Amino acid sequence: MNIHEYQAKELLRAYGIPVPPGEVAYSDRAAARVAEEIGGNRWVVKAQIHAGGRGKAGGVRIASSREELREIVDRMIGSRLITEQTGPEGQLVQRVLVERACRVDREWYLGMTIDRASQRIAVIASADGGVDIEEVAREHPERIHTEIVDPATGLLDFQCRKLAMAIGLQHRMAPFVRLLKRLYRLMCDKDALLVEINPLVETEDGDLLALDAKLSFDDNALFRQGEIAELRDFDEEDPKEVEAHGHGLSYIALDGQVGCIVNGAGLAMATMDAIVLHGARPANFLDVGGGASPEKVANAFRIVRADPNVRVILVNVFAGINRCDWIAEGVVRAARSQGVDVPIVVRLAGTNVEEGRRILAESGLDLIVAEDLDDGARKAVAALRAVEAGYEPVPEGVRA
Amino acid sequence: MSVFVDETSRVIIQGFTGQHATFHAQDAMAHGTNVVGGVTPGKGGTTHLGLPVFDSVEEAVAATGANVTGIFAPPQVAVDALLEAIEAGVEVAVIIADGVPVHDMVKTKRYLTGRSTTIIGPNSPGIITPGRCKVGIMPAHIYSPGRIGVVSRSGTLNYEAVSQMSRLGLGQSTCVGIGGDPVNGVDFRAVLEAFEEDPETDAVVMIGEIGGPQEVEAARWAAEHMTKPVVGFVAGVSAPRGRRMGHAGAVIAGDSDTAQAKLDAMEELGLLVVRNPAEIGVTVARALKRAGAL
């Protein structure tokens, strides 16, 4: 789960990590009030959306007067910001963060993440701050410095000092060690998966300041992180994904035309891959999970069909703890009650497969039955090509 | 002797009296698994499925000589159950729960230092040595005894691969689901090592997915140390960057996390790489033929 920058900075502040004076605002008037409160004569206005790449997209602006500030905020709020991460439709800006601008001498990168190689928390630092860290890692891996933390001791002072020396922060050793250790405590306390300060800056006065912050949390730990869970902003998420989640379905919208309804994350990905191998593209990832009831399958149909790009639906279920008869029941129910108007290809295997196939056959519906994974993907793509060529409803050539 | 579990394994089920645990314990027993009891705190002294129930793993181990546990506790408490099993000296602990907090697993792996429990999971379908022992939630009836070792992150993709092999008459020595979480127990490499040592395994299928370095690390180890053929598949060539594809660990964070990069690396290291998930079975057959075992 991701949160907004202003929320991340409030958390940093609560952990004693210095951030620029500032506050969130929902209107130009509120922004002017924030400016008055925090003082100064230049302010930074930052669009609060989860997607990165805001700076290049015009989502971070400097105002040199109150009037200019109100003008910028007025234009920003209610607009759709298109960054390299939002997709072409952009993301609606509903609030901005107003901060006092500060003069910056140098910028660093600081991050903490779960390192999958060591299976521990890694602390990452670089003297190349304020830029895309992945690019630095690619082009100049020697400029990235990492310390792996033993969970039994936590982050140790000497590790922090090593990093300080590696990135040229020896002259601010004590505050840097303090900052890193607080950041590590935040990461552990709040079940964060990623903590990123980019850039960390040294101001004219010699203070270390987190100029931008990104925090990401473990969804699986939200049951014990009530305060974090409350920070979730559903407006930043795909409403179909949120709805699917509510039905116990794992759904991710993609940009193809073959709607997928599968059980298990691995098989769902492999099904998408098979569709690509046969020359089409999946419209979504969807895992119905284990023990899927007919109702759950029908819900999956509704969510997949809500995507206007979907021209054919491929159901691929290898039932272990699932039951093919329930899946078939769900398919039939959805096709009848929702009046599904696209070809449906169904591949069933595993527990109660015979019963499942009988239900499909006796339904009298125009379903395309597939023998195995390859057959399913092939028939789905063939049906798609037929629909694209204008055949209605399902042409004989692709029927089982 | 297959790997990790066989007919000599003495299995307990943690969370024994729960609905799912009961269902899968029955299926495991019908499949020949030597289930010797279970643990449900507060229900010690009673019996369930004709077997003794204990309040703690320590008691269960002392009374039954159990050396393998299947943990069916929900994700919020599964790690506590796992740590209890490790402390009680259980040799193999299978943890099924999907939704275990990552930080808990980081600490658990540190806790394991100096202790010898093999953890399988979390977010795992379990482990099965067909006809002899099953600890998990996989449908036992699709597996058949044989000489192919299978290791995967995903459960359903494990079933898919097995069914393709079964159609060609290729049975399995042991199938291990190491789970879809970013921080997990045994990794691909550890399972490959076990299969290489196992006289009952002739070839290995490794089924990975996007995210993390474990597949390539294992492939690198295999290239240097394995005499048996390894067939590799990685799911998710069509997955977008930055999105978690169902499994907590299935996310492309950097270039090396993509399925394409992993498949290419595996191929470079000399593994038999499958690019079409429907061709896992036939590729295993080809590997055996090439190795002269079929």
Order of helices and strands of chain B: EHEEEHEHEHEEEEHEHEHEHEH
CATH topology annotation of the largest domain in chain A: D-amino Acid Aminotransferase, Chain A, domain 1
**What's the mean pLDDT score of chain A?**
94
The CATH architecture term of the largest domain in chain B is: 3-Layer(aba) Sandwich
- In total, the number of domains of chain B comes to 2
- Rg of chain B (CA only): 18 Å
Describe this structure in words.
The complex is a heterodimer of chains A (400) and B (294). Chain A is α+β, with helices and mostly antiparallel strands. Chain A folds into three domains: 1-20 and 103-237, D-amino Acid Aminotransferase, Chain A, domain 1; 21-101, ATP-grasp fold, A domain (Dna Ligase, domain 1, 2-Layer Sandwich), CATH 3.30.1490; 238-389, 3-Layer(aba) Sandwich (Rossmann fold). Helix content of chain A is 36%, strand content 25%. Chain A contains 13 helices and 18 strands. In chain A, strands 7, 8, 9, 10, 11 and 12 form a six-stranded antiparallel β-sheet that branches. A four-stranded antiparallel β-sheet of chain A has the order 1-6-2-3, with helices on one face. In chain A, β17 (344-350), α12 (353-362) and β18 form a beta-alpha-beta unit. In chain A, α11 packs parallel to α12 (353-362). Chain B is α/β, with parallel strands linked by helices. Chain B has two domains: 1-122, NAD(P)-binding Rossmann-like Domain (Rossmann fold, 3-Layer(aba) Sandwich), CATH 3.40.50.720; 144-294, Rossmann fold, CATH 3.40.50. Chain B contains nine helices and 14 strands. Chain B has helices spanning 19-30, 57-64, 75-87, 102-111, 156-167, 188-197, 214-225, 259-268, 280-290, and strands spanning 11-14, 35-39, 47-48, 51-54, 68-71, 92-95, 118-120, 126-129, 133-136, 145-152, 172-177, 203-209, 230-235, 272-273. In chain B, β8 and β9 (133-136) form a beta hairpin. In chain B, α5 packs across α9 and α6 (188-197) packs parallel to α7. The longest helix of chain B has 13 residues, at 75-87. Classes of the chains: A alpha+beta (400), B alpha/beta (294). Chains A and B meet through α4, α9 and α13 of A and α4 and α5 of B.
